[in-house]
């Protein structure tokens, strides 16, 4: 499930484990890994079951199962100084992975929550229900027109619908996960610092005053705003995303 995308020139920098946006896969983090160029942490990305349009179709995995497998792989690999990045709906498994790692006594150095607001429980549940009523084709079309995911235009109809189905699964799971936390906030917040990463021109993360709502789940939250790049800034502004990681993970020079 974890794919290693890059090495690190400094072992102390740790490992950045990345969860893709709804309908995405590990490939989405290749631009970020290339932009880091061996600086900062080694980059791992989560390859979600059923999300590779070029592979044989397989069942999607529940969020709970994804998190459990990722936590087991992180601990099994003995990764130290773990950082997590969740993009859009990928923030849900990133948050839950951080919670599970901390429960196991594994230190989480930082959690990056990108292109997502916490929102409201009723709003989340309503969005999940609407997604679950839509067809794969309708969802794929909406991704192209409403959210500007132009890469879908490069796929044939069958593969585009495949992405639509994966998007529905991931997005609905994230909505229901966060709705549960909003209705019953956790007794113990994340101790890891959280950096909320947004693009100024992304309508999904407006209004700005809601970006600190993540304090419901974490003790320490700061916001880093990119000047532009839209919702998919991992693809459009990977260098800026990489600088965000490096700024937040700077290490002292070895003595």
TrEMBL record:
Keywords attached to this entry: Hydrolase
Pfam families in UniProt: Thioesterase
Residue ranges constituting the Thioesterase TesA-like domain according to the UniProt record: 17-249
SUPFAM superfamilies (alphabetical): alpha/beta-Hydrolases
Family label: Belongs to the thioesterase family.
Protein name from the UniProt record: Thioesterase TesA-like domain-containing protein
Species in which this protein is naturally found: Streptomyces spongiicola
Origin organism lineage: Bacteria, Bacillati, Actinomycetota, Actinomycetes, Kitasatosporales
